[in-house]
Amino acid sequence: MASTPPPFREVAPDGPVVFSGGSNADPADGAAPEVLTVRPRFEHRYWLHALLLIATLATTTFVGALHYAAFEAGFEARMPDLDVRLLARGLWYSGTLLAILGAHEMGHYFMCRYHRVDATLPYFLPAPLPLTGTVGAFIRIREMFPSKRVLFDIGIAGPIAGFVVLVPALVWGLKLSEVAVLPADFEGLSLGEPPLFQLASWLVWGPVPEGASVNLHPMGFAAWFGLIATALNLLPFGQLDGGHIAYAVLGRRSTSVSLVMVLVAIGLTFVSQSWLIVAVMMLVMLVTIGARHPRVLDEDEPLDPTRRWLAFAAAVILVLCFTPAPIEPYRLIANP
Ligand SMILES: [Zn+2]
Description:
Layout: E1 2-3, E2 17-20, E3 36-39, H1 46-72, H2 84-89, H3 91-115, E4 123-126, E5 134-140, H4 148-176, E6 178-181, E7 187-191, H5 195-205, E8 212-215, H6 218-234, H7 241-250, H8 254-268, H9 276-288, H10 305-321, E9 327-331
Parallel strand pairs: 1-5
Antiparallel strand pairs: 2-3, 4-5, 6-8, 7-9
The chain binds zinc ion.
C-alpha cells in the first residue's frame, strides 16, 4: 500500500522538499503556493515506526499462538491453554507475515529512495482482529511523483518484493502442514485457494483425497494471507499499487478502470461476503478521494516497453494470488 501525497511544490530536484502550506492547488495548474516551508527528505520518526512494529509483532504473535493451537488440535474442536510455549510458536505466523508485509513496504520505500521521492518508513497497523492481528502496513509518500516511470517503479516494487518472500514461505508453510481427514461435524473456516496456493499445495502434497483437507501450518496461513493482501493491493483501483500501475500504463483512462473495479468488487460480494469490506472501502475512497489518480509532474513522458511487460507480469501475479471467495464458513454436508 502507498498513500496519497499531499499538495506540494518541488523547487530543487535533489534538494529539500518545499511544501505549500495546506494549499490544495494542483501543481500542474501553475498556481503559486502561499506559504513555503523547507524540510529535508527522508526524515523519520523512528520511534513511532519501531513502536508500531513492536505492537504489531505483539498482536500478530498472540493471534499466531491461537493459529498454532488450532493447528495442533487438527480439525478437533479442543483448544490448549495459552502459555509461553504457545506464544513462542505464535512467531511462526507473526514472523512470516511481518516478513512478507515488511518486504512489500520496504520494496516501495527503497524504490522511493532510489528515485529520491520523499516517503516515510512503513507504518505497521496492529489490530485485535481474530484471524490476522493486523490490518497491514503502509508507507506515506510525501511528494508528487515526477513521472509515470517513477510512479510505476514505486507502485510495482512493493508487490514484487512481497511476492519474492511470499513464495518460499508458502512452500515451506505447506511442507510443515499435514493432510488430515475432516470430521463429519467439522465447523470452521474454509480458505479460498488462489491458483498459486493450489499449485504449491499440489507440488507439496499431490491430490488431496476426498473427505480430507490440508491442516494448514500457521506459516502457511501467513503466506496465504500474504497472497490475499498482494491480490488486493494489485487491484487496478484508485491509489492502490495496482491503481498506480494502471495510471502509469493507461494515464487518465485508468479512471474508468477504477470505476469498473468498484462494480466488480460489488459484484463479488454476491460470490463471497468477504468482499463486502473491500467494496465498502473502495466506495469510501471513491467518495473521499475521488476516482481520478493524482497527476504526475511530467504527464507526457511515455512508459517504456520493458515497464509495460512488467505491468503484464504484475497482472499475472494478481491472477496467481486472486481467489473470488477468500474466506467462508465451512459447512460439510455429512454423509447420511
Ligand atoms: Zn503496496
